[in-house]
Structures are given as C-alpha cells and as structure tokens.
Amino acid sequence: GTQGDILYYGASGAPALLGFGTSGDLLKTQGTGANPTWATPSGGKIAQVVTATKTDTYSATGPDNAFVDPGLTVAITPAASSSKFLVMCTTNLGCAQSEENAARLVRDLPSGDTVIAQGDALGARIRTFVGSRMPDSGDMEPYNMIVLDSPAQTAEIIYKLQITMQSSSGSTVLFLNRSDSDGDDADTYRAASTLTVMEVTA
User: Hey, is 196 helix, strand or coil?
Assistant: First the structure.
C-alpha cells in the first residue's frame, strides 16, 4: 500500500484498499452494504472575522430617544451574496440615576441604515435591542448583543453600534465606557466596548 491508504472489508469479506484521497477530504461511511469513500466537506465555515475595540469614552447630551453613533463600527466586504454575518457587541453605558438608556445594532449601507434587531412596535414605546433604567449614577450598564444578519449582497457593509437615553430634563448626558459621576478614585471604573463580525459562508 501507499501512505494514506485505508484498508477495509468489501462485500466478499476480503480486504480491500481505499486509496488516499485529496487533502482536506473526509472519510465517509455509506452505511451497511456499501464501501467507505472520500468526501469533500460541506456546510458553513467562517470566511473572515473583523473586530473593533473602543477604549476611550463618548458622551451625548440629552439625545432623548434619538439614537446616536458613538464611533464603534466595523467594515466588512462579503465573500458571497449568500453569506450570513454573526454580529456580536459588548458595550457599557452610563447616565444619571433613574434615567433609561438603550443600545442597538445597525447595518449601514449607501441606501440607508437598517436596524438588524429590535422589539416589535407598540404605541409610543421605543424600539430597541437592549435597554435598562440606571440604578445609580456611579454605575455602568453592560450590554451584550448577538444577532445573525443576512444582507444578501457583496458590496461593503458597515455594522455599527447606536445608543440612546430618555432624558427627563433634556440636558442630562449619556456616556459610553464610563459612569455619569466618574469619580477619580479606586471605586470607579473605565470600560471598553467591542464589536465583532464573523462572515459565515454556505
């Protein structure tokens, strides 16, 4: 035999040889009464991974339910129009005590922005991916978002984070990666936010 060959038993019960296959092939059984064969792997694979990390802070005064871009984006060009994109984001928001804040993920194309996951519309309620009421001005609210997007195109796509808050006075401030009070002491934290996009091909 030759290195890489596989010995198996044929229908007569006599040993038979399956010659070495092509690099990357898998050994495939065809069930009872059939000989094994080599097969080309099929199914999804990760074609590319692009990530961005924002370690500085961002602030916006009184957005009051208007979503703003804090500058966390990822640009990716699909390998195929059939690709899906696993979009994962971890972010940290701060604002005054009892104010509400929210975050969402957006696909940005020349034709306009598309929110890729948000709650159903109902009355005057604000649609978002995640949201919460801030328990204390010294806290940050951590959010983790994961969504599988199917843009069906090959042109470059920009995925981005958008954030907002409900400002009761119109002058309160929304922060990314820091708390509202942000005291200069060992009890106060500064955080980082990340956005990662994985292309999954068929």
Answer: strand
